[in-house]
Amino acid sequence: xxxxxxxxxxxxxxxxxxxxxxxxxxxxxxxxxxxxxxxxxxxxxxxxxxxxxxxxxxxxxxxxxxxxxxxxxxxxxxxxxxxxxxxxxxxxxxxxxxxxxxxxxxxxxxxxxxxxxxxxxxxxxxxxxxxxxxxxxxxxxxxxxxxxxxxxxxxxxxxxxxxxxxxxxxxxxxxxxxxxxxxxxxxxxxxxxxxxxxxxxxxxxxxxxxxxxxxxxxxxxxxxxxxxxxxxxxxxxxxxxxxxxxxxxxxxxxxxxxxxxxxxxxxxxxxxxxxxxxxxxxxxxxxxxxxxxxxxxxxxxxxxxxxxxxxxxxxxxxxxxxxxxxxxxxxxxxxxxxxxxxxxxxxxxxxxxxxxxxxxxxxxxxxxxxxxxxxxxxxxxxxxxxxxxxxxxxxxxxxxxxxxxxxxxxxxxxxxxxxxxxxxxxxxxxxxxxxxx
Length: 437
Ligand code: DLL
What we know:
Largest sheet: 9 strands, mixed
Helix content: 25-40%
Distance between the termini: 27 Å
CATH topology of the largest domain: Rossmann fold
Radius of gyration: 23 Å
Strand content: 15-25%
Number of domains: 2
Number of strands: 21
Mean pLDDT: 93
Low-confidence stretches: 1-6
Bound molecules: 5'-O-[hydroxy(phenylacetyl)phosphoryl]adenosine
Number of helices: 13
């Protein structure tokens, strides 16, 4: 195994008690900033917290109510903004449970910190300034592209900001510039391998050593498959837009769980039913507090992702605890080719269209290595008596309306009234046929 180069050795190996003390100090500042926002002022005051100094102990911390995606939506657009608007230099957004997106705001200091943590993440996989980094994640409102881009530059790698898609061009860039590290969703890398074969590229055309994979759930088998197909190491990277995206928890060269950067995040595992905290090693929902984010503090955020802290120390020597690969979610969010989709968003769109009846079904399948989303809707009886061109038109309109909200273009099937199954009990609206591997 190659030698680990500690870029931030001191902070990454800080003994746990010191790390906790650092968190405590930063938490006070974070609560102070949060109290400046209309949302947290009310939320914290209602919980009896009026001053940041009220939060001294772990028990005090646990008095802070959880924040949810719903809260972010309620506070849209600026209810959680802590900085002066003039000091905000960037916003990012991800899907809300319905039409309103979840938005975060960052100041220059926040962006610098995010870049540093992403640089740290790349370094902890052994990458250096000698690497050529091709970023195949989407640039834009999604954090996956820009955040790791900045981190890779901070580390000094040469960055190819290719963005997602256009697979033949990706391969040509990889070949021409001798790319050594790629960043992509695992499903995209599997798809790219098929194109690589079809286009007649040979393994010796490339200099690839590593892939950073994340933004969607995947199994250990998928990781191994990617490693085997390309002859590389693949590192799991976890993050979410609300918490700055990637650079939150990353695997080191031991590839055995993702170090949560605990000098910047406080991680807790709770039982998603009782909302009670669980101990290290117990599986539950991850709750995160982001420290030092001036633009938009978020306290005790329910990620809905199910995981556990691995209690054993990592052989790399880092003290920051590792999160195990995510095993699922405690809500109904679907991740389709790396894009987050809530069934409620789909429902909201189709229920606004008068031609559509009340019954619908969402189906997600594997199509090769990628995911396919189909929305089946029952239309009202008058629609079927009309011309077929109208049906085609309607189908396209539904597709476009859905695409405008969920950012992927689903297949749409129109059905006659009463044609879709009606369940006796709780309606089953989503059929997810994807297998784990
Ligand atoms: O997916 C941020 C990201 C970009 C992470 C690039 C890693 C790499 P969102 O679009 O807000 O942000 O989606 C966040 O995706 O709550 C998880 O459910 C899921 N997710 C992200 N990474 C992983 C992973 C980005 N490595 C949501 N394994 C999260 C499993 C993941 N699920």
